[in-house]
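User: Fold this one for me? It's TolC family outer membrane protein.
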Amino acid sequence: MNLLGKLAPAMLLIATQPVVADDLLGIYQQALQADPQLRTAELKVDVGNAQKGQALGQLLPQITGTANWSSNKQSVPGFTDRDYNGTRYYVSLSQSLIDFAKFWDWKRAQEVENQYSAELTEAQHTLIFSVVQRYFAALDAEDQLQLTQMERQATETELEQVKKQFAKQLIKVTDLYEVEARLDQLKADEIEAGSNLIIARQAMKELTNTLPTSLNTLREGIEYHELEGKLDDWIAVAKSQNPQLAAQQSAIEAASNNVAVQKSRYLPVVDLQLNYFDTDTGYQSVQTSHTQTQVAAINVNVPIFTGGTTTHRMFEAQSRLAMTQEENEAKVRALVKETSDAFSASNANARRISASEKALTSATKSREAMQSGLKYGVQTIADVLRAQQVEYKAKRELAKAKYEYIINRVRFLKAIGTVNEENLQEVNGWLSSAADMGSR
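Assistant: Here's what I get for TolC family outer membrane protein.
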């Protein structure tokens, strides 16, 4: 069985799916439940919150308690054995009074939590964009396959007519060969288009863990407007609102606070300590019934020499801060490029849609004229095939321009940090409903 025969069942299954289709919001809701990257980002926020709680806990009183019960037996030759049973209780409270390292570590943990929260927002924006990108990539793949099949069917019709004309010796054998060659090329293109559709659907499954049954298609009559405003203004918005940059700024603050933590290791640490000790254990129970001790102390710990550990930890923290700052510069430049590319591409797509619609109109008229000329012997079958090829190429480019416009528009909104579910709802409104599809 050739490759076309192997792919035919899969393409037939795709083409015969039920009318009930998945819309953009439906795919998004599935992705919200199934996307592991979003879930990972949510768990990182939980980790950041726990780390902040740990750092805060180091600034609060530390209380420990110990209880002990024991039985002691004393045996001395010539004397009666004696038992000494008793209990012992110990309670200690320690409170940091001056410990800059703990304070700056708490500030660092706060910035890490802010970083993870911004990364969660970025993950949410990325998921919205991924859903749009993969949804319309799948629609584009469906259109490319459908248009290739339509062109193949039209070429098969042309081939039947050419065979009849050749049988009547009205055309040359080269005309017949040219139609057959074009048909063979379209069959190869159909195989590739079918494979691309399967790949596009698998890409959607990666987000939702479920293969889509069928997708709602793009409606006609949508107005594709260019983005308003100046690019420089939008870049400024992106720098102030993009969550990825916000996360990087928090990472810089966290790294800076970590430098402060390491520098604080050189400073004295002062803490308050309160101890209570109550014992009635062993031989002490013979001397006195109970021994109770209360201690209140101010402890001052002055670091003198740690073998260079503190110094090298500070050097490491300073280097990590410099690395984070360099990463921020790289991300700023990448964001400027991404915002510029998405802005320019979206506007270019809007203009391309208008130009492609005119090109399709012209190509359709040209093909119709060529077919009419063929009937009267003015044009050759080669002219008709070329005109037909140009027409279907214009159809493919028009469909692709529409999908790329939507993808680049959402890509732009993601870059400037404003993409949200309302944008999904707007784009979802551009799709045909199940009722519209059922009435076709």
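One thing worth pointing out: Residues 1-20 have pLDDT under 50 and may be disordered.
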